[in-house]
Recover the amino acids of this structure.
């Protein structure tokens, strides 16, 4: 669904690719903390459009920073790597980078990292008939009832970073 | 009131956050180069493994049952930083005291709210970081330390224990605490106190402070005041020199200059090295922390800390300094005015009881002997000719930092290629 938000997101990615040297990238993104974050990118005052830029764009007031945008609570945010293809329907591919916030409530409808019998797993939480289930977005995988199972929610997945051709590390 | 917040089996807890299968198992973390056990889960303690036990002397049954990991200081340092960040949400006054302990000042908070606040703090640290902590709340640091121990020992407290300056409960706690269990009371002083009929903390509290000072020292007098609930000691006084060494100081004025921070770090590190050699210990890792002044409203705030492991346990100021400058380089940010910078030497071992690494060669022996001679000469010059007669410049950056760490877990939070993996299918 191409939308203006999506366009702005693309803008970030292009900006990030252009402005960051490798060394900053490595230092910065390894830790989830605004303090060590990238020197921000100038915020465009208008959406991407053809025609003349607004004169207001000459007065850059804020900076945008993808890290701060994605990481709301640095102390509680962790990056993890997805493995497998059973969450494709939620936009999670094999090898994608997931942003996980441990401070968020694991509410039904949210995608969570959950330790199932000791194995960290990504699934969506769903409530069906008064019971909580873990569901995959690939219909080949049957939902898993949580009742009577040893598990604890590790955190809530808030973002997926998926690299397209040319963007792989 | 002040709280001491302290992570339970901190290194093991860090490992468990990222590998849930370790939950409920006997887990140990080994010192640099996998020499001896420096952290134990309570399951491992129950197997009779002592702190500092050499790896090669563990019974085969224990080695089969237990999960023994190399130390992963990058992970522990980052998790420690996260815990302190969460503490900062509850009070502006957070003072890290070691990698797994911090003091949180609550002056100005309404007294009735403190205990619920500490419970919320404990829950939040647990949820956000996965690290279980114990909280001891009291009017002074010494009492907070005692309260913290109770919070961890007695399940009924559910991790948070408050100890007031007076009252029947406080009396009972102090009476059951032998003086040498108190923070900063050396065994020798404890023996002398016992000769004078002072065997527990309550008796010391009831002693005449002037008498205590004349017979012992100002430090011991301060202890009496602390036990009575009047804050008397500063942080640097209370390091337990057998476990860690902390040297830190506030700058006379705020500074944002990198070279000023480096100079302070160098000085603290040199001082810590001298103390370390005086007591005959070796350090295994160096932690550096910096912070701005949290009480200046409107000033941009920043605090951070980093830990760098030493290639082998060392008391050589050059090696300590090289590690400390790497740590400072990792956390220094421009654009802030810093108020404080500190250096902490972690996981100390006695030189005499140090574990010889299997990898040590005669060249290593010769190098160590040279290092010892150099450091002894240095210390003598500075003692006889005055402090700072001989000082260090900044070490080269290109030092090799190779550790033997075959069983080290991934650096989950500081290294792109080592992130935790989560499966989508099952």
């Amino acid at each position: 669904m191409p939308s203006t938000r999506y366009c702005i997101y693309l803008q970030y990615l292009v900006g990030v690719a252009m402005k960051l040297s490798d060394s900053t990238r490595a230092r910065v993104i390894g830790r989830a903390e605004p303090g060590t974050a990238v020197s921000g990118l100038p915020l465009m005052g208008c959406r991407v459009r053809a025609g003349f830029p607004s004169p207001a764009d000459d007065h850059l007031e804020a900076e945008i920073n993808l890290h701060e945008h994605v990481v709301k609570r640095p102390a509680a945010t962790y990056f993890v790597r997805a493995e497998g293809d059973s969450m494709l329907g939620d936009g999670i591919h094999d090898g994608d980078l997931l942003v996980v916030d441990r401070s968020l409530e694991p509410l039904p409808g949210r995608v969570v990292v959950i330790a199932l019998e000791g194995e960290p797993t990504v699934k969506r939480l769903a409530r069906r008939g008064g019971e909580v289930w873990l569901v995959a977005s690939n219909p080949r995988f049957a939902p898993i009832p949580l009742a009577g199972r040893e598990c604890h929610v590790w955190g809530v997945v808030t973002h997926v970073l998926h690299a397209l051709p040319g963007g792989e590390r | 009131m002040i709280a001491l917040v302290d992570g339970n089996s901190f290194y093991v807890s860090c490992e468990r956050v990222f590998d849930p299968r370790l939950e409920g198992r006997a887990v140990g973390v080994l010192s640099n180069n996998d020499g001896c056990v420096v952290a134990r889960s309570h399951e491992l303690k129950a197997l009779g493994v002592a702190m500092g036990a050499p790896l090669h002397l563990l019974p085969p049954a224990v080695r089969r049952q237990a999960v023994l990991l190399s130390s992963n200081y990058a992970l522990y340092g980052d998790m420690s930083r996260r815990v302190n960040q969460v503490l900062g949400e509850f009070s502006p006054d957070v003072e890290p005291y070691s990698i797994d302990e911090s003091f949180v000042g609550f002056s100005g908070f309404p007294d009735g709210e403190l205990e619920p606040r500490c419970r919320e703090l404990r829950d939040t640290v647990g949820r956000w970081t996965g690290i279980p902590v114990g909280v001891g709340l009291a009017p002074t640091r010494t009492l907070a330390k005692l309260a913290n121990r109770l919070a961890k020992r007695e399940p009924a407290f559910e991790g948070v224990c408050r100890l007031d300056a007076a009252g029947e409960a406080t009396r009972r706690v102090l009476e059951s605490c032998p003086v040498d269990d108190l923070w900063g009371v050396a065994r020798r002083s404890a023996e002398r106190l016992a000769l004078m009929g002072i065997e527990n903390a309550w008796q010391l509290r009831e002693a005449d402070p002037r008498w205590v000072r004349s017979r012992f020292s100002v430090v011991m007098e301060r202890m009496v005041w602390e036990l009575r609930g009047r804050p008397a000691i500063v942080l640097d006084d209370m390091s337990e020199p057998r476990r860690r060494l902390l040297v830190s100081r506030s700058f006379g004025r705020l500074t944002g200059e990198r070279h000023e921070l480096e100079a302070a770090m160098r000085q603290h590190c040199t001082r810590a090295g001298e103390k370390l050699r005086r007591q005959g210990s070796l350090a295994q890792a160096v932690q550096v922390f910096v912070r701005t002044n949290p009480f200046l409203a409107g000033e941009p705030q920043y605090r951070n800390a980093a830990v760098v492991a030493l290639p082998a346990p060392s008391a050589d100021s050059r090696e300590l300094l090289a590690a400390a400058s790497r740590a400072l380089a990792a956390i220094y940010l421009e654009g802030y005015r810093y108020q404080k910078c500190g250096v902490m030497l972690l996981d100390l071992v006695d030189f005499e009881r140090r574990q010889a690494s299997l990898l040590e060669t005669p060249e290593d022996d010769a190098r160590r002997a040279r290092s010892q001679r150099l450091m002894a000469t240095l210390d003598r010059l500075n003692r006889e000719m005055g402090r700072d007669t001989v000082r260090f410049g900044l070490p080269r950056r290109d030092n090799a930092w190779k550790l033997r760490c075959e069983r080290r877990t991934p650096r989950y939070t500081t290294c792109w290629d080592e992130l935790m993996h989560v499966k989508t299918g099952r």
Observations:
- The helical segments of chain A are 4-19, 22-29, 66-70.
- The interface with chain B takes residues 26-27, 29-33, 35-36, 73-76, 78-87, 92, 94, 97-98, 102-103, 113, 115-116, 118-123, 136, 138, 141, 144, 152, 154, 169 of chain A (CB under 8 Å).
- Chain A is about 15% helix and 30% strand.
